């Protein structure tokens, strides 16, 4: 059984599969409290669901892409079992995770989208840097940028840890906090090899749950 906040069908708003119709499985609970969190409603509540029920609901949308998200999905131990089941059923699976929990045991068929928490998030101390050692080009890391200070910090991490050479890096402007055009200009000025991404679902539908 897993505690589930919602299962819904939408367009992937971020990362490599942006724009693809995707089933989102949002697990309840997160041990972090990022200042910009847009899924606080997933911290508490939710419904217990058997993994068979989750698989059935996912199949009902007839979509190849599945994103397991939260909250922090890996905070529930049974999440690994769900991820394995989804891969075995031949879905294209991505996992959105905070970067604060070990991702080394996640099935290698899954594309892990791992946050690197910036100082502006309020949770920079939670970064589990050892995660970077197990990620491959099949995975992605994401910085949510809240300010110029966050940007400079992220660039320093990328350069000092030589991340550009080995990982696909995403920069997202913190919604309502960091101007996206300004962020794009900084990236171009610095000749940075990262992808600036907007949250497509918010541009289309606004900041509403279940979209
Ligand atoms: S890790 Fe994600 S879900 Fe948890 S508080 Fe931060 S933004 Fe919200």
DSSP E strands, number: 9
**Given the helix and strand composition, which structural class is it?**
alpha/beta
What is the average of the pLDDT values?
Answer: 95
How do the strands line up in the largest sheet? Answer: 3-1-2-4-5-6-7-8-9
Q: Name the poorly predicted regions.
A: none
Shape: globular
User: How far apart are the first and last residues' alpha carbons, in Å?
Assistant: 24 Å
Residues in helix, %: 10-25%
List the helices and strands in order.
Answer: EEEHEHEEEHEHEH
Helix count equals: 5
How much of the polypeptide forms β-strand, as a percent range? 15-25%
Bound molecules: iron/sulfur cluster
Radius of gyration: 16 Å
Largest sheet: 9 strands, mixed
What does this protein structure show overall?
There is one protein chain. Helices cover 23% and strands 24% of the residues. The chain is of the alpha/beta class and 211 residues long. A 9-stranded mixed sheet has the order 3-1-2-4-5-6-7-8-9. The longest helix has 13 residues. It starts with a strand and ends in a 6-residue tail after the last helix. Bound molecules: iron/sulfur cluster (SF4). The site of iron/sulfur cluster has 10 residues, from loops.
